[in-house]
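Q: Now give one record:
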Amino acid sequence: MAVITVSRQFGAGGITLGKMVADELGYTFADSYVVQRVAKEANVSTHWVESFEKEAGSKLSRFISSMVSQRWLDRVLGDERGYLDEQIYLDYLVLIIAQFADEGNVVILGRGSQYILNDHPDAVHILLVDEPENRIKFMMDRYEMDRKKAERTVNNEDRRRASLYKRLGKADYEDPRLYDLVLNMSQMTLETARDRVCDLAKQKNAES
């Protein structure tokens, strides 16, 4: 019943590798599923959660959270729709990632899961790193982006990732001591990385 968390520098192939590992092991790949559960618990649309994640930690979201009162939102939205701010999002995130971990046989992508499940006995924590140029090229090749868009996406996502961890009160998210395995994707193929992660997960299961 291993739980695999995949943290990564954006563009290092985390989504692709996470899916490959989940397919190989027959595990659930919890990426969009996390969004769906947060949306259900907060009683908002998945689009709202996806948009919120893209803006989480930004000056705009902090401004909105500080200026808009809950009483006003309750009156405008009524009982049919929910509300999401940074603290509510983080609370639900911790709860839902813990629920996925309890269910087991899951690959969880990012979202601070390496911290949330730091003491989970069945968790295997993975970090993917790569050179900036390789990450930009990965986005260009894998998602058919032009260079300017790929550079902008990688830079924006790096900032967003740092912002999320800041909200979690963490600044050491690339410290290798947090992880069971750190993979330098400039030194191996996705298939090799998949095999190493799967071997580690199988070892964890055997020890449980």
